[in-house]
User: What shape does this take?
Amino acid sequence: MGVAGQREIVASPATPTDVVGLGRLRAVGFVAPALALVGIFLIFPALWTLYIGATNFRLTGASARSPAFVGLANLQRALTDDTFYRSLWLTLVFVLGSAVIGQNGLGFTLAWAMRDVHRWVKRTLEALVLLAWILPSSVVAFLWIAMLDRDGGTVNELLGRTPGVAWLIQYPMAGIVIFNIWRGTAFSMMLYSAALSSVPPSHLETARLVGATGAQTLRDVVFPHIRRYTLSNTLLITLWTFNDFTPFLLTAGGPNHRSEIIAAYIYNTAIVGGDMGYSGAISLLVLLINLLMALVYLRAARVRRRAA
Amino acid sequence: MTAFIRRILFYVVLGVGTVFFMLPMLWLLSAPFDDPPTYAVRAPRHFSLHNFAEISHNRYAVSSLLNSTLLAFGTMALVVVAAALAAYALSRARVPGRDALLYVLLLLSSVVTGTAAMVPIFLLIFQLGLIDSHVGVVLVLSGGLLPAAIFLLKDFIDTIPRSYEESARVFGASPLQILRQIVVPVARPGLATIAVWTVVQVWGSFLTPFILLRNPDKQPAAVLVRTFYTEGGSPNLGLIAAFSLIYSIPVVLMYLLAWSRYGFRFHGGIKS
Assistant: This one.
């Protein structure tokens, strides 16, 4: 109940909530278009994955016209498939490196460092970090391809090497991890900026007066206040990074599958390879992992609300 | 002395951070005006607007920007209308299990991502015969954006006092009249926020149009920019640079507009 709800109870305790006389039928009619769109193009695909993943559906050939039911065979195949495990492992490295450690760490560091710098330094740096976040993904992907190019990329120019290292071919995982830190730190930075402003200045002042070092202040004064934000932030950026397709625009999963994180793996097996049934089963696993992360997030948020 | 060194170190770290974030984006400011541009960030050697002229020479470039506009505004119209109707009904009528419904929708929209759902969505649109059709892309994007749009709009409509609607009703206005003449004008800032947010999301979206639109005549800028190669097979840097700049400007402008008007309220959670 918001402000409006309270007002209504106070002002007219006897009237029903339906102030405009919308009526049940019209209310349902108002909600129906949105629910139909969401139902057909969001919920149905998710449920349909259950079926697709249990067939040998292919884009072309005989099994395109009449896919056969194969039960759990696709899942069994995935669980014995080295390419699938490699993709899972690369995804784990990507998520841990770029989100859990990279964006979290850099986001907090920036938020902490910018507390007492000059205002225009803060504004400039914040604007740059945000810009990296809002530019379209096709554009930022090419910006990094240009940065890391072998023949004339900025990084090799700075190192004074021409032709230099083909970074995205020699170190594709490091490339997409650094790219995603650059791309996504803005959210963590904004969240930690807000969280840090909830630390009472008097506590920081006390810590300074008793002569606590920076590290002690962080550990004993700051972290107890922002711990719950850290959990939500980590869960959210993990969920988004896990589902991020943008690294595909830098490396297409290559070279030789060496940066084929799960998003690229699904694209390459489903749309390029045409193996819908098998990639449907993989998608199902991704959906379940997403659901698990979202539920943990909601639970953490509820605990936080109750504690507040 | 240690305090001094620490201060120096602090600014070095800040400087490195600034360079890290700024350096890749400088290319977007320099390369479009250089003839010919290189991969490396550098001040333009021969300042020229030739690269922008090349956009009009490319067969697909201008039409892809129109396609992006069409997809963005088509999705925006659908999302705003459907979300406004739903949010209004959910805010004003007693619907059993309403809050649970909203939370489940929001949960699903963050769980059913493009990556997780590209297989069923591709097959669904394939079966509906909507591959290479803008309608398919608009429908899929709307389905993904609607839960968050309804959620945000309902919050907004909840804060509008009902007394206006009550008095209009006393004077005999029909529900649709009330909606059109009272609720929509009052809710305009909320509707505008959702509209801008939808346009920004669709303008930048890559995966959905990438898998659903194969014909370059139909592709939006986000997808088409990846096809700019010279006859020799290397990326056409001049065209990519100029086109990327033009394509990026609307997003930045819309963020600035939203930021100056409503503060930074874009939820990252509903990106992608």
Notes: Confidence is low (pLDDT under 50) at residues 265-272 of chain B. The CA atoms of residues 229 and 235 of chain B lie 4 Å apart.
